[in-house]
Design a protein that fits this description.
Length: 314
């Protein structure tokens, strides 16, 4: 995987390059090891400092980081025996939205999540993580299947939004998203939502109704992208940083107004620095909250989900 560097990460990357060069030289010159240790300490301190002062717009950039882990990365590290299920049984299989059965510490669960892909070919195949109507209908099919067997549904959200093409509108995009919202509102099993990257518009909301909503520390969740908001309000997409701030798309603001229930801490420097560490944090959150939700009866669970929605923003 090629390493991408954000603008505010460049000073950190410069120290990392020095460390790498010294490590190569230290093979023949062990006296350089103390200098390497000193640089590693400086790099860690600088990373902590930079990431503790990120603006909302910089957090949006981290949420979109090309090296950020995706749904399939989390499935590989958190779950066992994943068996992907395909198709909506009406039109096609949408590769931008993956789903299937798996086990979490031995217990069966249903996983559904956006997948953006890595290299160019895979990104095109997966439509850059922007589902078409058949993707949402596949998700609905899997949710109803999970309900039949009383399996918890776990969704991973990471999308710029639903695909804004003519084809999607022709095949009933808005109806497919609305149907998912209705199904998730009354689904008779536990639903846990994890926003891992950017949660954009209805494309994210179609997987976003649940009993417990968590978001990674540098994840975002918004009704539209900051660029779209800036184009609408100021007719100038360059004002996206101001829009991001005003829209309160960051995790801490979302927690304050009750849209999310939990912020999952990321490794120093973001989730893209350590896939195993962030996967472990997500797994701990899932296990804790599945156990907590298991205390509620079906009727109480549905009522709690309804009341949770009513309290947003209050």
């Amino acid at each position: 995987m090629s390493i991408s560097i954000l603008d505010f990460e460049k000073p950190i990357a410069e120290i990392a390059e020095k460390i790498e060069a010294l490590q190569l030289a230290a093979v023949d010159n062990p006296e350089l090891l103390p200098q390497i240790d000193k640089l590693k300490t400086e790099k860690l301190a600088l990373t902590k400092k930079v990431y503790s002062k990120l603006s909302t717009w910089e957090k949006v950039q981290v949420a979109r980081h090309p090296n950020r882990p995706h749904t399939l990365d989390f499935i590989e590290r958190i779950f066992d025996e994943f068996e992907e299920l395909h198709g909506d049984r009406q039109f096609a299989d949408d590769a931008s939205l993956v789903g299937g059965l798996a086990k979490l510490e031995g217990a069966p669960v249903m996983i559904i999540g956006h997948e953006k892909g890595r290299d160019t070919d895979e990104k095109v195949k997966r439509n850059f993580g922007m589902p078409q109507p058949e993707g949402y209908r596949k998700a609905k099919r899997l949710m109803l299947l999970a309900e039949q067997f009383n399996m918890p549904v776990i969704t991973f959200i990471d999308t710029a939004g639903a695909y804004p093409g003519v084809e999607g509108e022709e095949r009933g995009q808005s109806e497919a998203i609305a149907r998912n919202l209705a199904v998730m509102s009354t689904l008779k099993t536990k639903i846990l939502v994890v926003i891992t990257g950017e949660g954009g518009s209805g494309g994210a909301l179609a997987l976003g109704v649940g009993d417990h909503i968590s978001i990674l520390e540098y994840g975002t969740y918004s009704v539209a992208s900051p660029e779209a908001c800036a184009s609408i309000v100021w007719r100038e997409s360059a004002k996206a940083p101001e829009a991001a701030e005003a829209m309160k798309v960051g995790a801490s603001d979302l927690k304050k107004i009750g849209i999310v229930d939990e912020i999952i801490t990321e490794p120093i420097g973001g989730a893209h620095q350590d896939y195993d560490s962030i996967s472990s944090n997500i797994k701990s959150s899932l296990l804790t909250n599945i156990a907590e939700l298991s205390k509620f009866s079906e009727e109480d669970l549905l009522n709690r989900r309804y009341q949770r929605l009513l309290k947003i923003g209050s």
